[in-house]
């Protein structure tokens, strides 16, 4: 698995300018024998151990009506710290809830990140900024290893940029569209697929662990890839893991609807 060694650097999509500026330079580096998240219930929360949210989900959308993002790519939903039993905390720190994500990223010089988000992290109602704010405020504030005290030279909102960058970095390693296409699963108005076929195709890019996939009726529209993390969320090692949620898709007859220009969304409410 190539990804684990790359992800442990926490620098997958950073430009040379950002690296030189010290982005992530003060995020904790943890001992190699740090326990894997969810591996023990006795480990106390620290900047090197994620708890209670020790199962991390890189989540993606296939928005087809109305369509969002490129026609040959899924789009980002978020990065969620779920508890080890499939439950989750939410909106954990009201003092760090923000409504100016674009401004935060510009102030941090993360223009490449912002450009990528504008293309691949899309809201199905057209309000990308509010979507990003929601994901940080609801999920990002619940990650204990990126709290301000975990930084050695903390600057305001540093963890926000780090969280969004990590979400994008993970997304770039999980090309759901390409993985499905490699297995002959392509958007179609006539073809249908089985849940087993979809699971097998996506397990091929996730160390043989099938992600959770969701459907709106019979129509495929979400994928959640599960990980455990050894160490800090930003600098730690990500290990693919078994999904903790079972699909709501039927066993067969699943449609993979091509993206359209429809005006009414048929997708369910977002988490």
From TrEMBL:
Its EC number is 4.6.1.19. Residues 1-25 form the signal peptide. Belongs to the RNase T2 family. InterPro entries: Ribonuclease_T2_eukaryotic, RNase_T2-like, RNase_T2-like_sf, RNase_T2_His_AS_1, RNase_T2_His_AS_2. The keyword RNA-binding does not apply. Pfam families: Ribonuclease_T2 (PF00445). This is ribonuclease T2. It is an enzyme of class 4 (lyase). Transmembrane segments: none annotated. The keyword Cytoplasm does not apply. It comes from Aspergillus pseudoustus. Keywords: Disulfide bond, Endonuclease, Hydrolase, Nuclease, Signal. It comes from the Eukaryota.
């Amino acid at each position: 698995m190539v990804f684990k060694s790359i992800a442990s650097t926490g620098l997958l999509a950073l430009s040379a300018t950002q690296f030189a500026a010290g982005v992530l330079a003060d995020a904790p580096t943890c001992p190699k024998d740090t326990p894997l998240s969810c591996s023990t219930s006795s480990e106390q929360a620290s900047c090197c151990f994620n708890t209670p949210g020790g199962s991390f989900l890189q989540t993606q959308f296939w928005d087809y009506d109305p369509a969002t993002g490129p026609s040959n790519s899924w789009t980002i939903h978020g990065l969620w710290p779920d508890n080890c039993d499939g439950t989750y905390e939410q909106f954990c720190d009201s003092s760090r809830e923000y409504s100016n994500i674009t401004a935060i990223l510009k102030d941090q010089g993360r223009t490449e990140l912002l450009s990528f988000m504008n293309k691949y992290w899309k809201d199905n109602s057209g309000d990308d900024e509010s979507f990003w704010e929601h994901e940080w405020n609801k999920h990002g504030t619940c990650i204990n290893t990126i709290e301000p005290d975990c930084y050695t030279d903390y600057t305001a909102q540093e963890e926000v940029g780090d969280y969004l960058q990590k979400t994008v970095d993970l997304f770039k390693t999980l090309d759901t569209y390409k993985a499905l296409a490699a297995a002959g699963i392509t958007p179609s108005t006539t073809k249908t697929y089985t849940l087993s076929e979809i699971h097998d195709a996506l397990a091929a890019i996730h160390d043989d662990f099938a992600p959770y996939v969701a459907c709106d009726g019979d129509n495929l529209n979400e994928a959640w890839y599960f990980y455990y993390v050894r160490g800090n969320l930003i600098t730690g090692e990500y290990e693919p893991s078994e999904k903790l949620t079972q699909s709501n898709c039927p066993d067969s007859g699943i449609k993979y609807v091509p993206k359209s220009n429809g005006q009414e969304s048929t997708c369910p409410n977002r988490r």
